[in-house]
Amino acid sequence: MNRHEFIDMARENIAHVEAGNTPSQSDDVYRVPVANYLDPARWQREVNLFRRLPLMLALGGELREPGSYKAMTVMETPVLMTRGSDGAISAFVNSCSHRGAVVVPDGSGVARRFACPYHNWTYNGSGELVGVTDREFFGDIDIACLGLTPLPCAERAGLVFVVLTPGTPIDIDDYLCGYDQLLDYFGFGDWQLISQKSIEGPNWKVAYDGYLDFYHLPFLHRATFGTEISNKPIYRAWGPHQRMTSPDPRLLALRDVPEDEWDLDVMCGGVWTIFPHISFAGNHSGGLVSQLFPGTSPGSSTTIQSYFVADEPTEAERTDAEHRAAFFEMVVRTEDYYTGIRLQRALAAAAKSEVLFGRNEGGGQLFHQLLDRYLDEDANGTS
Known about the structure:
Helix content: 25-40%
CATH topology of the largest domain: Naphthalene 1,2-dioxygenase Alpha Subunit, Chain A, domain 1
CATH superfamily of the largest domain: Naphthalene 1,2-dioxygenase Alpha Subunit, Chain A, domain 1
Structural class: alpha+beta
Strand order of the largest sheet: 13-19-18-17-16-15-14
Number of helices: 10
């Protein structure tokens, strides 16, 4: 864990408070073509990009013990993640080698074997085919070559990353750019799931723009929580990944305390995003994790919104966490995505050719700049 960088960010935040609650400032206003949110060809390139980048699909706490598994459908790809007896994570395309049926229904649990519901071909937690029904009648096959198809995966900072395209190289340390050294503080590997909901939204970039935006808080969220947080964002980036916070007067109290005694929990607030699709808000005791994926068309997306706690909750703590989860679902569904879906429709009217990101919206600027860069690298074969 990089405590020094937490302290450096706290110093930066204090400087913004002392300067009169000023935001971060980019060099200029940034313009994004409206077509980027609408064009089917570009959207398909973005979907292809999602299929080759490491996606954060699970918290280590969801696969806590050897033999635990999580199955989920990601952009129409069935994925199975397992934790082996050695503690290592594996990931597979959740599709039987016999006739392609989904082997494990979406969900999680603990199991030593997975039996395909179609013909009962059976696999172990390492994805190996270990049982063929009526094998003596089936014919000559080499079961050693008929295991589940592995997907590249890695675990860092208690987060499980998977690439949806088999055989794609993965260098997770290079991709995270040291960001995991800060995320490690939260202890995601020990967190426990309280609530999980799926929310349909607008184009995935419209949705992600909102996760990188405090500018809208006192307006769109004025009836919920928007007046409790300054809308003057402060951004810091690690490669394509970003943390967004805002001037926090509570940090002024740290000035009278030796830096080696500064409370990390006071310093870790804000919104932490992992490119291209994750938003997290909380502290070491738990919080909200949002996994955003493109939908089945340029105008749609799906967000899996999960609320976690770090320790086994009491009944009262569980009830409180469930209420918090329900609140956040309501805010995203009825405020953020309600607005975003209508924004998407308005963009399609072609009244404007560009949307604007102000100098105070540097997080959105960086996101779109880096997304364009990734797409260009894909097109040029240089990624």
